[in-house]
Amino acid sequence: MSRAPARAVPARMGHTALILGDQLMRDNPALDGADRVLLIEARAPLRRVRTHRRRAHLVFSAMRHFAAEHDHAEHVRADSFAEVLRDRRDVVCAEPNRTGARASLARLGVRFVPSNQFLGGFDDWVEGRRRLLMEDFYRDQRRRLGVLLDEDGEPEGGRWNFDEENRKPPRAGLLAPEPWRPAEDDIDAQVRRDLDALRDVELWGEDGPRAVAATPAEAEAALHAFVERRLPEFGPWQDAMVDGDHVLFHSQLSAPLNLGLLAPLRAVRAAEDAYRRGAAPLASVEGFVRQIIGWREYVWGMYRRRRDRGNALGAHHALPPAFWGHQTGWHCLDTVVRGVEEDAYANHIERLMVLGNILLLAGVEPWAAVRWFQGAFIDGAEWVMAPNAAGMALYADGGEMMSKPYAAGGNYINKMSTFCGGCRYSPNVRTGADACPVTALYWDFVDRNQARLSGNRRMRQPLRTLARLDDMDAVRARAQAARAELG
Prior knowledge:
Blueprint lengths: L1 E2 L11 E4 L15 E9 L1 H5 L4 H16 L4 E6 L2 H5 L5 E4 L4 H9 L3 E3 L8 H5 L7 H12 L40 H12 L18 H14 L1 H7 L16 H5 L5 H13 L5 H24 L25 H13 L4 H15 L3 H11 L5 H12 L16 H7 L20 H12 L1 H4 L6 H9 L3 H14 L2
Parallel strand pairs: 2-3, 2-5, 3-4, 5-6
Antiparallel strand pairs: 1-4
């Protein structure tokens, strides 16, 4: 265990505020009444989940920037939290985001206070409800928080949802402004040296300049740049996938939001203000607002509600080597994984309809997928990835979050991306040498799970189509070959 240079501290009167690496709010409730601030940079979590180097760099940089701002901060580098906390008394922490962290810190005697990292409202909303649809929760949030409402309390534009305007497929020559990037400092340089010196941790992915905010000031600059330069076009192209640019018009604010560097309502109000002053269209602003006060808060609520590791489709395959960089020859998958390897990022539709879709179709065990998403992405966190990867993408909860599996063949990827133009396979072919592996896996998936999905009315059309296919033996053979190609 090593420590940062000692600082003068006052006579001990209050408690020690333990500030976790994903709770870097400058108004963290644990700070109230504290006379000492403690941040623990532990290596054990990097062994529990194989982590992208850029994610480790961001979290450690953000923690060290937090410590540098506090005169009474103690920054400790150790193997584990237990190593530091076992002899400490009167340690207070905002309630941890990860279920396992909550249990382990409680065993070490840490006291919890309610966190202010989320907007709340989910627990009251869920009371007495039989269906937990995100759309219903989102509308309740809009009303509760007074977001994008007119003078009569009705949704701006007369509609709650502008999804139909926000699903444009990519077109040739689609270009987005360069995303905001921070300037690294001496803290980043030291983090890079310390990561280079690690010998008992295997990090994944490439190093490179830090691409997202590590301080509140940087997060504010990133928010401003997004609102002014990319928000106006965000809505129409939010589901588009373009070969060579996976940021497009996305905000890249999820990491600072998840680390507590940016308050969610601050981001929402900035976007709403852009609409009010005529700087961004309603459809784009509504789509962004939906992601934060709708989807993000809903995912947080669903994570806390559902603690078991469901596997409704009985998926049992291991995570394939393709997700660690093994080349498959599938242009969509190879391109997206290569992007993740380079900078720990993929936009939300690449995550869902390329990565998550292929994991679903290939029958990969849901929590193996969760751990990969958690460690591979710059904004990875268990509370995010468990509902999104296991619940939404892999249908592991059997429909609690999604009314049908988010399964699709190559034609969807062809419609919403430019990937298929650079691929040797034909998205609308399911058998033979030119068959798209995603298309073959899709029909194999529907075939394998038809008994489980037969009662789902939203699967009736695919099941009727399946019944008319007379080449399923060849489809199954192509699907088996596709699994082999995944490594």
